[in-house]
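#lab-general

N.A. 3:47 PM
ok so I finally got the sequence cleaned up, no stray characters, all 433 residues accounted for. can someone with queue access submit it? mine expired

B.Y. 3:52 PM
send it over

N.A. 3:53 PM
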Amino acid sequence: MKKKTISHRRIPALFATALLTAVLSFSVTGFCETADADQNGTKETATALKMKTTVKDSLSDQDDVDVFSFSVDKSCYVMVRCTSAFQSASFSLKSEAGKSIVKRYVTGTLAEPEEYKIIQQLTAGTYYLEVSKGAQVGGDYNVYVTDQQPTAMTFSQTTLALDDETGTKAKIRLEMIPKDSVEPTIEWESSDVFVARVDDGEVTANGLGYATVTAVAKEFPSLKAECIVTIRPRQVSDVNVNANATKKKKLAVICTMGYSSAKMPDGYHYYIYDKKAGKYVLKGKSTKNTYTFKGLKEETGYKVRVCAYIKTPAGEVEGELSKEKTLYTAPKTLKATKITGMTKGGMTTLKGHPARTLTLKWNKVKGATSYKIYGQESAGEKFKLMTTSKKPSVQLAAGVGFTYQVYVVPVRTKRGISTDGKKSPKFTVDMRE
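B.Y. 4:20 PM
back already:
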């Protein structure tokens, strides 16, 4: 056997002279040997570890085994943690009688230190920790032992929100109280794996909604912690005007989410920019993807943004607002025109009956982009839309021998939204010969 001195222990004066040469050669903790010559596990040379104190050491071809001892005052859980930067080594826990309790093999590398942990319930007594180098190159390591029992366990955060994109991940960290206590084996559970899955504290988004992630200490079942995980709706992809429902002082909008699954948000919040306030303000919400802003000015542009939301125990949780979109209310109502006259043309047929062509004319209305012409197909019937024209005139055909009534409505169309103007006075078309 070959003994090395302990950096944090004093060498008794009795041995000071005899070990002077060795003292000059070593300045590390523990005991090293290339073989256990006396086959007793080197208990007599084991270095005593203090609880909650990190000990640093290293192994090499000349120092391939280190042995430490520690004492436990009462029956409790003990945690032994070894942070290594070497390969093919092991650290094992043994009883005072030399019986092996548990062993861990280290696979870390010099470039990437790895942490290995033993959590073991032990009775009062003395125990030995042996760190051994394997066939590969040695390296540095740290050892930490604690018998402090945890009194509480909490998450670093009690809520977590992720966007609804399958595969989005986030790590939630557990904290033991007190911090230097045993770190138990954690059993993880999600109340809804279709919303969020949890693996060793890493939460993965699976779908829209909310779930409770629970952590329970296996060795201390009374200790548990919960975190509410919310998978927020994704961003509303687009907002457009609903031209069929938009009026002069009403702006009807329709939003698109881009979801392909049946799982949809609980509703939508509709925002409009308030120039006086200098910000977007919530104007209303709907369970549908359509909404109508009211009390607006005609033919005016408004900046609109929309977000989806879901209901959770903590309230409504919004997704990201859509991009800003300027949408317009319908154009103003134009004044009525007046039909100025009619010119009869040649004979033709209409639905198999004799008819005559005619040209109807009316006054041009400023701002009109087109005109709608309404008339009676037969005398005494209701007025129906007969045709449209972009000019203040139109050619029609009417059956001979009857009189009809027609009127014209100017139309203003702007940005795809149309507003009908006022009706012209009715005009009598006399087709009697």
